[in-house]
Every structure is written in C-alpha cells, then in structure tokens.
Amino acid sequence: MADTPLLSVRDLSMRFGGLLAVDRVSMDVAPREVVSIIGPNGAGKTTVFNCISGFYRPTDGEVLFENKPMHRLPGFKIARAGMVRTFQNVRLFKEMTVVENLLVAQHMQAERNLLKGLLLTRGFRRREAELLDRAAHWLERVGLIEFANREAGNLAYGQQRRLEIARCMVTQPKLLMLDEPAAGLNPNETHDLDRLIVQLKEEEGITVLLIEHDMSLVMGISDRIYVVNQGKPLADGTPEEVRRNPEVIKAYLGEE
Amino acid sequence: MKGKLLPAFFAAGLTLLLGASVLGVQLQSQGIDTVVMVHGPLTWLGLFAAAVVVFAYQLIKGRVQRVREKARQGSRFRLPAFLENPAQRRLMIALAIGALLLFPFLAERSAIDIATLTLIYVMLGLGLNVVVGLAGLLDLGYVGFYAVGAYTYALLNSYFGFSFWEALPIAGGMTALFGYLLGFPVLRLRGDYLAIVTLGFGEIIRILLNNLTEITGGPNGIARIPEPSLFNLQFARRADEGYTSFHEFFGIAYDPTHKVMYLYILSLLFALAVAYIIYRLMRMPIGRAWEALREDDIACRSLGLNPTAVKLSAFTIGASFAGIAGSIFAARQGFISPLSFTFIESAIVLAIVVLGGMGSQLGVILAAIAMTLLPEIAREFNEYRMLLFGLIMVLMMVWRPQGLLPLKRPQMELKRG
User: Fold this and answer.
1) Residue A105 near residue A170, CB atoms below 8 Å
2) How many CB pairs under 8 A join A and B?
3) Which residues in chain B are contacts of A136 at CB distance < 8 A?
4) ipTM of the complex
5) Does B299 touch chain A (CB under 8 A)?
6) Start-end ranges of CATH 3.40.50.300 in chain A?
7) What is the pTM of this model?
8) pLDDT by 10-residue block (mean), chain B, 417 residues
9) In sequence order, which residues have a C-beta less than 8 Å from that of residue B221 and are 6 or more positions away?
C-alpha cells in the first residue's frame, strides 16, 4: 500500500447487549482499490458496514475517512462526505420512476432554494437539466436507459440491483460500499456486475468496499480481502493469500 | 346455495338488529324522564323490507360481483384523452378557472358562501396532502394549525387592529413556526405513534384556546372579526374613519352580497395559489425528497438526505397552508371559537386526502368539493345525513380504495433527444 488509505478502520467494536457482534476489526482501504469483506453467515460483516456507514454508532474504535473521524456522525453526513452504500435487500424508492430515483439521489447537488424552484428561474432549470443529464448518463452505463420512466418496483431483480448502484454513483462518491451486490443474481447477471465494478474502478477511479458470498466474484475482482469470523478479524491479504490461509479454510469448512 | 343461506340469514338478522336500534326506536324526554318510543308499523315494515333485500343480495352476491368484475375490466377509469395533452389540459384549466371566477356573479348568495367554505377545505386538503400524501406522515392534529391561523388573525385584529392583509403573512409565518416547533420533538416517531402525538397536539391547542379565557375569550370565542378590504375599500355599509366603502367608491347601491362574492374570489385565488405552489413543490428537489422519504427513509439517509430536515420541511409547509386557510376562515365567519377546531375537522380533512387519493392534487380538490357539498345537499335528509356520509365512505372503500384519482406518475420524465 503506497497511498495513504482513503478509509481506515481502527479497532472497531460493536456490542448489542451481551453480544459482541464486532470485535476489534481494523482495515485500510487505499484509493482506487477493490476490497472485499468475507466471512461465514453471521460473522458480523454487515454490522461492520453499518458502523462504517453511520447506521450504527460503534461501541468502540474509530473510522477515519480521508483522515477525518466519521464514527460519531449520522449516516446522512457520512454519505455527504462521499461514502455511499447499497443494501443487502434492495432499497429502491419503488413507487417512483427509475429516473426519479436518480434525481432524489442527487438531492445535495440540486438547486434547493425554494423561491428559485417556485419561480422556475433559469438557474433552477439549468441545474435540473444537469441532474437529468447525469441520471441519463448513468442509466446508459448500467444499461437501464430504456426503463427510465418505468416504476422502479417493476424492474427485474437484477435491474433493481444495477439501479441501486447507479443511484449511488450519481451522488459522485469517493467510496462505494456494496452489501452483497450479487445476492440473488444469476451467473450472467453476476458476470455483468463483475464487469461493472471493474469499469467503475478503472474508468471512474472509484474505490469499492464490498461484502460478498460469491467467491468467484470476490476472488476475481478484489485487490485485497479481509476475512471476518464471529466478529473477529481472521485474516487479510490478496485473494491468493487468503485462499491458501489454513485459518480461513477452517472457518469456512469447519474443523477436521 | 346451501352454504350461502346461513350467512345470508345472519346478514339479514344483523340488518334488522342494527336498523331496529337506530331507526325503530327513539329516546324521548318527557319532563324529567326519558322514555323509549317505538316507531309505527310503517317503519318496521321498511326495516323488514330492508332485511329481505339484504338477504336476497347475499344470495346472489357472487353473481353480482362477477358482473362487476367484468364491468371493471371493461372500463378502467381514466382521465379523458384530451386532458393528457398538455396544451389542451392548460386550456381546460384556464376554462375551469374562468368558470369559477364567473360563478359568484351567477349564483345566489348562499351558494357562494358554501363555495367559499369548499375552497377553504380545498386549501386544507391540499396542505395536509403535503404532509400525509407526499411525505407519508400521518398527522391527526392538522386542525391545530388551522386554529393557530384563525386565532392569529382574530387576536392581532382585536388587540392591535391589524387588518386582514397585515395579519395574513404573520398568520402564515406563525403557523409555520408552530409546525416547526411541534415537528421537532414529534418527528422521531413514525406511523401510529406519530398519529397519536399529533392528535394530542391538535387537542392541546384547542384546549389552550378554550382555557386562556383572558386572552382568547375562551369558549365565547372572538367576535366581530372584520372581512378583508379590497385596496382599502371596505365592504361594510358604512366604512370606518378614513376609509371608503366599496359601494360608494363605485357609486352602486349597497349590497351585502358584494362581501360574500369578494370573499369567494379571494379564497379562489388563494386556493389556486396553494395548488400551484404544491404543484411546483412536487416537481422540485424537496417534493421528490418527501416522496422518497415516504417510501424508504433508510435509503434516503444512505444518499445524504437528512430525514429530520425533510420531514420538518413538509410539516412546516403543510402547516403554513393551514394557517392561511384559517385566517380566511376567520374572516369569512366573523366569529371564531374553539368549537370550530375540534378533532372532527382534522378527520374531515384527512378523509378528503384519503378519498381524493394520497398525493394527487386533482383528486384532493374533487374530494374536498364532494365532502363539503354532500352534507349540504343531504341537509334535507337531516338526521340521516351522517348515515349517507358513512355509506358513501364505505362504497368508496369498496370501489376505489386508492382514492378518486390516485397520484399519477411520472412527475418528471426523461425525454430522449
């Protein structure tokens, strides 16, 4: 790791009553890296995600994003700082259209002055046109442009997943956090997702942190992998290192 | 057939039981006693006929429903095609506004007066539609803001002599402030809990107005609230010192209808302004944020939207519309008391929003008209009018549970060049 890390997690712990769901997890994510968190079911991967993205307030430890502490901020402020996430179960605005989903996501870039909007000033119109352009651009990228005016809830599952990623991307984030993006996708769709993530990294220079169960996806695109088991960090390294790590094999396959 | 017999008997029996207790007998006071008076044979005959009808309907219900299903598939209710075209729609709206502006010159005084009340409910419905229909926050205390608006004008006038036009912006601002302050603690709650707390706030405002006798006059209310003036022209028979009266200025005979007409046109303009403002808001970032929040507040947070701020904005903006409607109401009535702001008002306005179709502006306007005109039309049925009201509500639930005109998408379209 030559660069200073974009995201740095130090000794993160999360306790729910008597349950220590996350126990001193640390990780570093450098700019333009794809980093995966893997682990058996219930290992605490999503809890780590929720702590980083501000949906939980961690019991202990710190989260630094571009060297700024994030672990005390509410979720929406973390999102504004440039860390945007998706959810394990897709969370689209289902009754709104596809393009409206992308417009809502650009709320912070929109012209929010009430008077300008009510009077339809030229500045307001220009800004709205920009938002629409960016939405169209990203719909094109994820191949959903012909569904732009459809209700988001009517899209096929794989399309909804891609729309959720597009919705993150229109906010122009620095770090994209994907929570099991391949869950429920067929092999073809998983392959498309794989390509999309690589493209995002190479063409947009975005950093990706993802949780995933699909090992072929994880091994193929990750620069580094963190393994979590029962809330504790188990191992980390390149896909090759992790694959050969006996501890990891034990955690996944059980004791011999 | 046999399986239907038992429920049919049951339904008929239920009809008889309910009908007998509501229509068949009556409590009457004789001196200090209350005696049960049983109605004559004609009423009972009617009740039995009703029970027979219910019995027969239960037997053929299946067939009726099949026919209805077929009819429904045949004709899905839609706006007529000519309203889909924007230019023609604009023309239709212009014509409708023109007709509404002409209306007071053709109708009689009582009709204009009812129309003014209808317009006030249109404003209330549109305002609550922002909170309930768009932002999805169930507010059962909306009448509280209506009361704040009405009392702001009434109190400013009776203590400091503010005119309607001076008090109106203050009333709007005051209710917005109330919405903001009440919203702060309340908006952490959601769904049912929010409904209960807002219900409480609505009642607190009413009870405060009722008990602050030194300031608000308590249950006696505030009387002699003047109607608005038209550029310093007053509508009274004799104008106050330093003012001219409307009829003198134009050299026409004094007619109390002028005042009613003026109030109607004023309410119409305000209702149109409110409708336009909300139309614009729905197509602005804030309106999109409201709808997004209604659908998924966690997703909103993950995209950088501050849910509290978005909710508060809906609450505040919705409240300020109620305040303006309240001021107009006070000016129309000339007298207000806490009795005008009971929970039933909140319920009616909420019914307007739900009947019209959550979030749909045209639907809410139509529902407001229906909800205020129906009781007026049904006045002849006198004690049965609430029954009629309930019947219509039930029929609505059966036939159009999504409201008269549900919100239509999209608000914003991506057009490809």
Assistant:
1) yes
2) 122
3) 414, 416
4) 0.89
5) yes
6) 1-82+173-256
7) 0.83
8) 79 86 78 79 84 86 77 56 71 88 85 91 94 90 94 93 90 94 82 89 92 87 82 72 73 79 92 93 91 91 91 93 94 90 89 86 89 77 71 78 70 62
9) B335, B336, B337, B338, B339
